[in-house]
């Protein structure tokens, strides 16, 4: 009897032990599953994967999550041996506006051996907008890669400081014509009045594309100080420069370029015809401009341009309170 009780007791203990082990194992698996189910922690862990592809996927995932908790791990990954991974990390830090990474990114802009990485640095610093990196950006204007230099110029245009202004005005003298055009465009975006004399000094540059960019840049300035330089460009020998100047002036409600727009309504280029219509929509009169646009609409074969003409006719009708039916309305009826 005693032997029977002892055997049953030991069987009970064995079953209890197995049950406890099973529960412990299930609990461990649940805990591990919970960790792996956290996409943030999983992606951070994958940043240290020995293979490149999982590291790239991890950076992409962190970029999508936009979680500030990933910033320290991403900063550490700026040291990744693979240039594509480094560039992706820099992009992710830019999207996160990770100001604590700006100094490290500024250093990479000047030191990384890969042009793609340096270009990513310049773009990312534009998202972060830390004025402490302006000196690095200015130094980046001397980068051997054209793509990096252009990215630097675009980012500098986001900083309304005397340092960025001086650097951009200096780039108007760059030996590369594409850099000069980029600098002029950036100065227009910057919109600092101190840049006006520098732009006005380049109205007679031999490159017509540069003069056209200068006209566009001048049109971005508020106030009246850009009007006189733009009026000078209305006499430019290049028709595209004249039209750009007329468009910029129209944006300032100056109608001195309206005749240029009227002549451009029959230009072979749809883009030119549309820009001409836009000028007339802004500053055209209710007689000459309105009639010319109606005729241009009737003769136009390009559907996109025809639609633009229709919009500008409606703009003139509203502006001058023209009540008579247009040819467009007669056609629709």
List keywords for this structure.
single chain; 333 residues; mainly alpha; Leucine-rich Repeat Variant; 20 helices; elongated; disordered N terminus
- CATH H-level name of the domain at 50-138... which superfamily? Leucine-rich Repeat Variant
Shape: elongated
Our measurement of the CA-to-CA distance between the termini, rounded to an integer number of angstroms, reads: 110 Å
CATH topology of the domain at 50-138: Leucine-rich Repeat Variant
- The portion of residues assigned to helices is over 70%
Radius of gyration: 32 Å
Question: Average pLDDT across residues?
Answer: 90
Total beta-strand segments:
0
Q: How many helices does DSSP assign? A: 20
CATH class of the domain at 50-138: Mainly Alpha
| SS content category | mainly alpha
Low-confidence sequence ranges: 1-5, 9-16, 26-35
Query: Architecture of the domain at 50-138 in CATH?
Result: Alpha Horseshoe
Order of helices and strands: HHHHHHHHHHHHHHHHHHHH
How much of the residues is beta strand, in percent?
Answer: under 5%
Give a quick account of the main beta sheet: strands, pairing sense, barrel closure.
none
Account of the 3D structure:
Helix 9 packs parallel to helix 11 (177-190) and helix 14 runs antiparallel to helix 15 (239-251). By secondary structure, the chain is an all-alpha fold. The protein has helices spanning 2-37, 39-46, 52-65, 71-76, 83-95, 102-111, 115-128, 134-140, 146-156, 162-170, 177-190, 196-200, 208-218, 227-233, 239-251, 258-264, 270-283, 288-299, 303-320, 327-332. Among the domains are: 50-138, Leucine-rich Repeat Variant, CATH 1.25.10; 193-256, Leucine-rich Repeat Variant; 265-333, no CATH class. Helix content is 71%, strand content 0%. Mean pLDDT is 90; it is low at 1-5, 9-16 and 26-35.
